[in-house]
């Protein structure tokens, strides 16, 4: 069905091109979604793009890039929509909204907390309850990947993520976190796949592991992971400079670049209605774990087939019928 989809889109685009050859100035650009290197945003994008392409008969595309590029591209209009804006991670978020660079138009789901996590078996055995408790158990986390063999290892998320930058600053803050600077190395991973691979390997063998993570993700759906709260209080005034405390939990919002509503009013209305939940997003991610042959597009189809009661609330009835007709060919 993926081959058919690509061929169908190609034919539709060619037909549209012939039909509008005499009026290129009237043709709208594809709806451009921001994407990152994690499963949930890719699944949500596939859902939205399928509805845009089949329900509204418009082109849609996505680009995977780093958080800073996503933000700048929303500010300058290169990206139209971000379906997963982790607002707590973005120091400029409130100012950007106030400045009208992009607009918060919905909440996708709630962020239950992100930061440093450990496996449940480790917490139960060693009573590690907070981030600072790691300092009493450095020897558990010694690892050959550290530059200093006497330092423990805390795994980080991919480079280019706002949360990774926050934790890099935290674990190099000698004034607020001298114990971590002296006793641990925080090492960002090249990708979420690399991060999850280290976690999976440790978990399968009940070995020590500490590192950045967040939900909803597939490890949280299949593993017992425990969050380690920071004993230092969060201070938004020094978010970027000192990274004190935990990144605050809150809404994972949906934002659209300025001018999107005027240029794409029907799509804007659809995206404004788009909302799911942490639980539902976790179920979608779990499909890729339990079914090796399913990618994000396949999960989007699974969602659209099984949760019509959810997505049909986002769009008018005529769009619902068009999407359902397209799904018959999947």
What features would you highlight for this structure?
3-stranded antiparallel sheet, D-Maltodextrin-Binding Protein, domain 2, 43% helix, 2 domains, alpha/beta, globular
Can you give me a brief rundown of this structure?
The chain is 43% helix and 18% strand.
Commentary on this structure:
- By secondary structure, the chain is α/β, with parallel strands linked by helices.
- The protein has two domains: 2-21 and 29-110 and 251-327, D-Maltodextrin-Binding Protein, domain 2, CATH 3.40.190.10; 115-238, D-Maltodextrin-Binding Protein, domain 2.
- Helices cover 43% and strands 18% of the residues.
- It contains 15 helices and ten strands.
- The protein has helices spanning 2-19, 39-55, 67-76, 93-98, 120-126, 162-170, 178-183, 192-204, 218-222, 260-263, 265-273, 278-290, 296-306, 308-311, 317-327, and strands at residues 31-35, 60-64, 81-86, 102-111, 115-119, 152-158, 184-189, 211-213, 225-227, 250-257.
- A three-stranded antiparallel sheet has the order 3-10-4.
- β1, α2 and β2 (60-64) form a beta-alpha-beta unit.
- The radius of gyration is 22 Å and the shape is globular.
- Mean pLDDT is 90; it is low at 1-27.
* The CATH homology group name of the largest domain: Periplasmic binding protein-like II
Indicate the CATH architecture of the largest domain.
3-Layer(aba) Sandwich
Q: What is the first-to-last residue Cα distance? A: 5 Å
Q: Average pLDDT across residues?
A: 90
Strand content: 15-25%
In one word, what is the shape? globular
The largest sheet is: 3 strands, antiparallel
Give the low-pLDDT segments.
1-27
The helix-strand sequence is HEHEHEHEEHEHHEHEHEEHHHHHH
Put simply, the count of helices is 15
């Amino acid at each position: 069905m993926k081959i058919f989809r690509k061929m169908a889109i190609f034919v539709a685009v060619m037909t549209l091109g012939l039909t509008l050859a005499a009026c290129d100035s009237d043709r709208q650009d594809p709806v451009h979604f921001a994407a990152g290197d994690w499963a949930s945003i890719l699944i949500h994008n596939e859902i939205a793009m399928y509805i845009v392409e089949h329900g509204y008969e418009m082109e849609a595309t996505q680009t995977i890039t780093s958080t800073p590029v996503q933000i700048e591209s929303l500010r300058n209009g290169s990206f139209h929509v971000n379906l997963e804006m982790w607002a707590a991670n973005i120091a400029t978020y409130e100012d950007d909204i106030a400045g009208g660079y992009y607009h918060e138009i919905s909440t996708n789901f709630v962020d239950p907390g992100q930061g440093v996590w450990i496996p449940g078996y480790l917490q139960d055995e060693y009573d590690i309850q907070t981030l600072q408790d790691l300092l009493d158990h450095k020897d558990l986390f010694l690892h050959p990947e550290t530059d200093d063999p006497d330092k423990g290892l805390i795994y980080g998320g991919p480079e280019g993520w706002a949360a990774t930058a926050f934790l890099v600053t935290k674990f190099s803050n000698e004034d607020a976190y001298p114990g971590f600077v002296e006793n641990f190395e925080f090492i960002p991973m090249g990708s979420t796949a690399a991060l999850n691979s280290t976690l999976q390997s440790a978990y399968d063998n009940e070995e020590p592991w500490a590192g950045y993570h967040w939900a909803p993700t597939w490890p949280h759906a299949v593993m017992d992971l425990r969050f380690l709260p920071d004993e230092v209080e969060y201070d938004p005034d020094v978010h970027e400079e000192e990274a004190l405390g935990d990144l605050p939990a809150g809404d994972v919002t949906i934002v659209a670049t300025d001018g999107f509503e005027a240029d794409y009013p029907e799509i804007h209305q659809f995206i404004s209605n788009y909302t799911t939940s942490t639980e539902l997003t976790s179920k979608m991610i779990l499909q890729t774990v339990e079914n090796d042959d399913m990618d994000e597009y396949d999960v989007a189809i699974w969602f659209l087939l099984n949760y019509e009661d959810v997505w049909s609330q986002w769009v008018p009835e005529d769009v619902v019928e068009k999407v359902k007709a397209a799904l018959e060919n999947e």
